[in-house]
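Write out the bound-state structure for NPW.
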Amino acid sequence: MTPLDGTPVLTAAQMRDAEEATGVSVEDLMHRAGTGIATALRRLAAGREVLILCGPGNNGGDGYVAANLLAAAGLSVRVAALAEPRSAAAIKARDGWGGAVEDVADAAPAAILVDALFGTGLSRPLDDAIANRLHELQATAQFSIAVDLPSGLATDDGAVLTRPPAFDVTLALGAAKPSHLLQPAARYCGAVRLLDIGLGAAGQERVLAAPALRDPGPDSHKYTRGLVAIVPGAMPGAAELASIAALRSGAGYVLLLTDAPGSPHAIVRRAWRDDALDDARIGAVLIGPGLGRDAQAQHRLDTALATPHRFVIDGDALHLVTPDRLATLKELAILTPHSGEFDALFGTSDISKIDRTRRAAARANAIVVHKGADTVIAAPDGRVAIAAHASDWLSTAGTGDVLAGAIAAMRAGLPDAFEAACAGVWLHADAARRCDKAFIADDLAVALTAARGAL
Ligand SMILES: NC(=O)C1=CN([C@@H]2O[C@H](COP(=O)(O)OP(=O)(O)OC[C@H]3O[C@@H](n4cnc5c(N)ncnc54)[C@H](OP(=O)(O)O)[C@@H]3O)[C@@H](O)[C@H]2O)[C@@H](O)CC1
Ligand SMILES: [K+]
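---
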């Protein structure tokens, strides 16, 4: 059982390919999966009775294997099935289970509920009776564990075919799947832990991991740490927040292009002029937080984009550019749209957030940080990182400005724009974890220092 950070994310089809590429039989892989599940259950159950619900496919097969191993280890375990197993491996696993098989419809509840009904093979919504029974048994259990995926979730796109109960833990077999991370599915998974079953293959999608950032050395100075220039607009508070966030993420110098006074004094303030960005020492330019969408905003944006800098483009600025304009920039820009800004810039679509974001990155030749409770970061070269669920308390004004500032600081200091975007998203989520409930964006910006300090 290991955390998902940095591990590959595979769709159902990619899982099948990875399974075939191992050259290991399905029975052996199922035995590895069942062994991992049984080991995890022994720890999680702590001696309490376990009820394993087994479906007709290989997800159910995993359940039978685990049940057999748990019983052999002396644990109190019962099995309830939905139907007879259908796949050869699941039939063999069922035959290996020495105990009784109850009917899911009338099985008595147990302290520990294990859902091995459906995994990556779910092809349609559950029957109402099955779904209701799953909810009943989960509600009476003290602790619930989903094998691979909570039954009812699609695997590849975060869709909910039938709403499952919210599980305490989901054991991802072999690799994380998109629905462990994408909403609305992810909210039903609880804590997701990876069980290694020896699959080697990896695509270009990974779960976001902590970045490897270098601390300053004896030769460092404020410009080597990164000079971030921030272009404000109609609502100056947003750019102020972004400036603090950039400093507290480790930028050496933050230049806020305003003559309005403010604090902290560490922010250097200078009035905007059309030549304000003519400084080769600038490591990254952030434009968008509080920019507005009026003629002044458009002028500042056009003026800025005519310079050869590395840009982080956020908020209002995303409404004042087109993908074609972005694709002509000299340096890869980082765009940070929430879903509304994303739709306005790239149009709407039914495909998964991962695929949409990847296409948008290719279209605009930019790094796209598609924000939300399931932030997806994509690069034009195909790399994708998906952030594990961060604090729901981030849903407050100004947190996007803080994110933009953190990303700008990373962009000023790191050569790879995708890695910079990933590092900023990580710092932002980690800062939120360090804040109390009902924190405000100012607290979040301050907490970036502790998040940076932990790396
Ligand atoms: N890949 C790997 O490396 C490994 C994978 N492993 C495990 O295999 C799991 C995937 O197994 P799987 O493909 O057999 O699919 P699974 O989710 O058990 O269900 C399919 C069955 O359910 C049926 N069915 C579907 N929807 C239904 C519905 N709404 N209501 C009723 N029935 C429905 C469907 O029938 P059909 O759609 O044809 O009617 C079929 O019979 C995976 O999650 C992991 O746990 C590990 O063992 C080892 C390594
Ligand atoms: K399941």
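---
The chain has two domains: 12-205, 222-453.
The first strand starts at residue 50 and ends at 54.
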